[in-house]
Amino acid sequence: MIKTVCVFSSSSSAVNSVYRETTIELGKRLGQENFDLIFGGADVGLMGVIARTAQNHGAKVTGVIPKSLVEKGIVYQEADELIVSNNLRDRKEIIESKSDAFIALPGGFGTMEEIIEILTLKQLHFHNKPIVFINSNSYYDNLLAQFEVGYEENFAKKEFRELYYVSKSAKDTIDYIKHYSPKQLPDKWF
After folding, report:
1. How far apart are CA 85 and CA 89, in angstroms?
2. Which residue has the higher pLDDT, 96 or 185?
3. Is residue 23 one of the residues assigned to a domain?
4. What pLDDT, on a 0 to 100 scale, did the predictor assign at position 134?
5. Contact predicate 70/84, CB 8 Å
6. Given a cut of 80, is residue 190 above it in pLDDT?
7. By the 8 A CB rule, do 53 and 28 touch?
8. Which among 81, 110, 86, 112 is positioned nearest to 98, based on CA atoms?
């Protein structure tokens, strides 16, 4: 049963308002559908927006943040639970182990690195949890096109399109997670 949803998102507040709107809608739906949120623990950018909105709509919010970022004063202090990790690698391991599903909102290098690691872990059968890219404003089109190049050039099996779901909206994302049925995929190696 899926209870705790990880959302990877941007720490930037300078992004187009369409991304903020998507983040607010996702936060509302997480809370209204009785999901708990786990996220990177910061109170900046879309990270702060998702935490506040989900919490204001009933979600229990857990932040996981490295101690070096705590020292920068960007912690979401209102989190129901705050876990301070030793570093970014520990943070990712904690988040992965405590999450039942993963969502990538549009974000920068950190967001992409985090969701790609989760995708790789699923490809290697370390988990079989749902992974969703919310492709609002066609943000992930180029990354998804690069994935297609990888399939066509045999760097990854075409069946690995099933590792993740691409969504345009928060509603579609939550519907996918609520009805997620794990697929048995082949081993990575050709």
Report:
1. 9
2. 96
3. yes
4. 98
5. yes
6. no
7. yes
8. 81
